[in-house]
Specification:
9 strands, single chain, 39% strand, 2 helices, eight-stranded antiparallel beta barrel, 12% helix, mainly beta, extended
């Protein structure tokens, strides 16, 4: 029994003292590139509220500075991650819907929108809807033929 324990001890000692193979250097996975945010701190007018539904509508954006006073749907990119898409009107006799959410650039042209909540006020006042389980909406940022900025459901090269 003594020789068995000694043999086990020597085998463990010998195995522990053998040089281990050198650690191989594997290249680190590519870090996701941060794409420039060309929408930050800008406000646009649009045909529909962005983020209210996940449909296949394309959105032409008109720079609010160029359009002047306007009644209708707007989207404001408040900072580098938050947006607010809302219906604006001068009178208070209307239904005002506001979409609050987050956005980020997946690549240089693809923007992913996440709707966090939807508020209804005015003639359609209702409790705030929280939409944490809603999937993201991917839109592609392109310049239209007339030079207007667009958010499309398909990239420009796939657009028919």
């Amino acid at each position: 029994m003594k020789t068995f324990i000694t043999t086990i001890f020597l085998a463990a000692f010998a195995y522990g003292c053998t040089p281990k193979p050198e650690k191989q250097n594997h290249t680190a996975p590519a870090v996701q590139k941060h794409f420039p945010n060309t929408l930050m701190n800008k406000k646009f007018h649009a045909e529909k509220l962005i983020g209210l539904s996940v449909d296949d509508s394309d959105h032409t954006l008109v720079d609010a500075k160029q359009a002047g006073e306007w009644v209708g749907n707007t989207i404001r990119f408040k900072d580098n991650i938050h947006f607010v898409s809302t219906y604006e009107a001068w009178c208070g006799n209307d239904c005002f819907t506001t979409v609050f959410g987050r956005y980020y650039f997946v690549d240089s042209l693809k923007v992913r929108f996440y709707t966090d909540s939807i508020a209804h006020s005015g003639e359609c006042e209702a409790a705030m809807e929280y939409t944490k389980s809603r999937p993201g909406l991917d839109l592609y940022l392109v310049k239209g033929p007339d030079g207007q900025l667009q958010l499309n459901h398909k990239p420009a090269q796939l657009k028919n």
